[in-house]
């Protein structure tokens, strides 16, 4: 097979997305050619597929920050044809062609061998969202979070939020408050493990004070912006917030008081440039937890990606969207 299909975004003569035919790429250095079985759709992918997303480094580009598939050819001695692999983050779909392609050349150092107890489909049900959720949970566990502590997960109906809830529930957490602005999410988020589902405005005080009543020990925040500003004064002494998203904005207006009078920690979570060793550990952890059958998953093909990214940016998307790339178009 010398040609295959991929989703491509371009800005000439104007911004557009289209399914195009491409030729198999030539491998250099330690590249590995992967026959992609699955990808997924993340918030960053949605930005990549919009004109003013400010994610793509150069055009044309094949988006898709995640992929999972089978090695076809390898210039990296760590991989041989037939190996099952996955990749998330780094420059995929941003500075280098990504997962929305039936074949893709990937630097060998970006690839993670698929855990034995996980299949390719499960890997991309999780993808960057699941990987990020695990990083958040692990960061808070390191701070001393225990299953009896009350925890809030914001943006709960999204990819990171929903996976985080499933992980926490599997780990035995008993008091998980899910923040969601979508009225129809309550039942499935409770089935996922949330002890209660609340609209953020029903929980947060109308007036933000430098310090307020201590109501939560730990927070996984996928939103940022004003909502995080309103949450910080409510975090209890010695508590911590794992921050991994900015869908609510990049500005944070707060005071130093929660940090110096309540000793709370604000921990930034990056999933793009995590070390290879940590990636191996996290993916083994996700495989052992085995939570993919609990998640809300929609499966699509490449041609439906633009519609899904639109829903994500509009705030109407829920759960995880799996992209079956290997299916003929």
Automatic annotation (TrEMBL):
MF annotations from Gene Ontology: acryloyl-CoA reductase (NADPH) activity
Signal sequence, start to end: none
InterPro entries assigned to the protein according to its UniProt record, in alphabetical order: Acrylyl-CoA_reductase_AcuI, ADH-like_C, ADH-like_N, ER, GroES-like_sf, NAD(P)-bd_dom_sf, Rhodanese-like_dom, Zn-ADH-like_protein
SUPFAM superfamilies named in the record: GroES-like, NAD(P)-binding Rossmann-fold domains
Domain Rhodanese: 106-188
Gene3D superfamilies the record matches: Medium-chain alcohol dehydrogenases, catalytic domain (3.90.180.10), NAD(P)-binding Rossmann-like Domain (3.40.50.720)
Alphabetized NCBIfam families for the sequence: oxido_YhdH (TIGR02823)
Protein name: Rhodanese domain-containing protein
Taxonomic source organism: Candidatus Enterococcus wittei
